[in-house]
Design goal:
Length: about 250
Amino acid sequence: MRTLLALGGALLCLASAPALPAGSSVHSTAVSPAASAGVPLPARMADTGGGSQLITAVAADTRATTGTVTWWDRRGGRWVRAGSAPARFGAKGLAEGATRRQGTHTTPTGLFDLPYAFGIRPAPPGTAYRYVRAGRDSWWCQDNDSRAYNRWVEGLPADCRPAEAEHLVAYGTQYAHALVIGFNYARPVRMRGAGIFLHVNGRGATAGCVSVPAGAMRAILAWAEPDRRPHIAVGTRRGATAITRY
């Protein structure tokens, strides 16, 4: 979904990872006292998707618009942090993915796959994921009445209203590089939400996506290996939407 501009303007809304460029803030994720005792966050989660790579996106609570994204490798039977960066969430915080409503400017919580990567700019060096370049005819349909609901389309279908779709190339900063988050994707539920991505930061909170600094997004794409079935888990430190529930 599109990023919500900071001043209330127009809405706009994926072994060691490569070092982040100068200026990118990197830090560890402190989610609970157990983490400080040496138990990695993925090891405390109910499900990690069954692969050996995982991205966690953690906010303090459902009202938060910022938090931390961390990417993890499972090696030798143990989860190891590969990288970390500050994250932004929806302008109205986070909401349980199973009951979220479209247009609420909330980031859905849950555990999701990462179907493919895309971007206006070429794929960063080392990208192994399927990567689709966005061009002038590339749109993401969010029209609940369209057969193309929550799908990338080349050329806007007649049943997808332009006001209910994103012209991807119009957002050169945010969609320079991105990963599609598989929220409401495999079997879309109308009015649940469409166009949820992990993408580059804009000027403020998002309208439902997760965003990170540009250097972190490039590092994640160079790190992610589709054969290792990476997933993303989005949640809070505690409560009904605690990331450990997913």
